[in-house]
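REQUEST FORM: STRUCTURE PREDICTION
Request ID: SP-0412
Submitted by: Lab K.M.
Chain count: 1
Length (residues): 385
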Amino acid sequence: MPSLRQSSTRTMLTQFLLTLLLLHTQIHRITAAEDFYKLLGISRKATQKEIKKAYRSKSLEFHPDKNKNEGAAEKFAEIAYAYEVLTDEEKKNIYDRHGEEGLKQHEQRQGQGGGHGGFDDIFSHFGFGGGGFGPGGGGGQQREQSTPNVNIPLRVSLKQLYLGDTIEVEYVRQTLCVNWQECMKANQECQGPGVKVRMQQIAPGFVQQVQQRDERCVARGKMWSSNCRVCPDGQTQSEKIDLTIDLQKGMYPGEPITFDGVADEKPGMNPGDLNFVITQEKHEYYHRDGDHLYVTMEIPLVDALTGFKHEFEHLDGHKFIVNVDGVTECDHVMRVSGKGMPRRGGRGGFGDLFITFDVDFPETLTVEQKKGIRKILDGRGSDEL
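STATUS: Completed
RESULT:
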């Protein structure tokens, strides 16, 4: 017979769980405030291509790396969730018929959290396990996989990196067949994209679980049906998209410009990222290292001895003059402040320009030239050699 203390503990636990459930409901009411179609700026009759285009535009606008305004990160998460729902035929149909509340009920029955965290997430923080209310509850959510990221070299000039530039490119990727979900069939051996698990008897009364690679598995419990008539070309089809690359001033070689979720699509997986990796072309005169520029200038011996001034043309075409009054030694390095590359990372200003002087000595001198130089430099007036 349970003691009074045990009964009181169970009552308190029940009240605590009910409080969490109410809190969870309120959180979902808040996140459901905006219609998914309005969030992406599209009509309810929008095609899959229009939905994807709107998502790319909105996600770039509110991406936390680009938009530092307050609430941008939350908006980005809402846009991603709306895109996830509207590009999943089953979820989209449920959302269109029953709204987000019906969608949440469907996802709870499927043991998922719908992108906003489920009951498993809340209870697991308090030690109640995932997938149930006790230690014997089921496992947590399976982490969603992504297709491989794609890295493409972007060859640009030093002038483009100095001035900044906008580059329009076309990219061809693989997108899901419009009716790809109609080509899936149930298969309990599928445990995720490309993963199949089957039970194998190794002895009477003993069974072993064997994991295999099977590309026909597209999601947990779902397998691709070969020769599906609604997708005669297979799971994916080619799509050409137009992208605008924003090359910012002072960007570094090797720095990526990322388009999130623009790599190839595949059933049961999120699309990876498309990265344009900056490759700097060699300049005729200037050499770059970080925010600084370097140039080597050859000067005649007479200039090295008597001083000179020289006009330089910078990467953007503006001209500036460097004056040297004293004697210049061979391989002497002169620093010109503020004539380097634009500084990145919000530091502002420019790096410096370093000029290395290479003195050009004459290969031969006449007897008279030698006497004249000795007379001038020796200071004794003697012209003897």
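NOTES: Confidence is low (pLDDT under 50) at residues 1-9, 16-33, 112-141.
Reviewed by: T.R.
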